Amino acid sequence: MDNPEQCLICDTDVPALFSAKARLSGTIVYDLRTCPACQASFFTPIPSSDALAEHYSKDYTFYKGDNFKAQGKGSAFARKHLAPRLNKGKLLDIGCASGDFLAGVQQGSDWQVYGTDINPEVVASVRTKLGLDVRAGEIEDVGFDAGFFDAVRVQDILEHVPQPLTFLKECRRIIDDHGTFYLSVPNGLADAQNLIDYYTQYESPAFSGAGHIYFFSIDSLTLLFDQAGFRIEKAYSYNFKKGLRSLSKLPKSKHWKRDLTPPVVQQNKSPHTEVQTHKQKQRSAAYYDFQFMKDELFKLPGVHQYAQDFSFVLKPK
Question: In sequence order, what are the residues at sequence separation of 6 or more whose Cβ sits closer than 8 angstroms to the Cβ of residue 224?
């Protein structure tokens, strides 16, 4: 990109406007800019692959295995969305982390499951421990055949991707013309606001601990889907209380600044320190089906500006 202030999504000629300064785990400080045309926000310059690799090499809790809740969610997802559509098919989970969700899909259906993740150590562990076909690298580099998958799932990954349109076009290439794309992504308006509020209050770069570098508006997502060759079949919004807090429509949580404080300010506390949790108990399929359906009931149809998160069911055009 010749102009780092130009929006990569709508390609407008109008420079993106400065909103805040932010950083990842390294020492580089980025501008957070907002496109006046499509309202997407993004880091400028876009972080390099080395900077992202450094950030994602930390001890993320979602890389922890033996997650019975994730396995149960995978089984419930398969029974609710996959098996009724096709008795057998191929599912790809991009950013599969510990592989527990995929293991659940395999347990709950006759579908073949595949995964990718950018952390090679985690991929090696998943392949050894769970015996799943999981591959390391960016989806553009893995090299699946065109139309190979009946379904692709991308759960909270798009906001981490340096080239979101390229990513989505590759997803379209590897999905069968009659396949389905399940995508979840934060509401960028709410997701970026805490970074902006932190910077405004402290005049210091906020820490994007989750590694988000894009913050998509509804308009920018619609544009991306169309450019990549998808149409929206269904759309949902959820996590409204968190979204209202992020947008200051409700009082913010008293701990809202904790995850935005750079680790050097946290007295050398690791930004990804694993939270100690009670050992999970494996429960029945009926229990996980009930929990899955309960979560689905809290999703409102459509995309709403005060939600923290969106989920989409997309179909090839």
Answer: 9, 164, 165, 168, 216
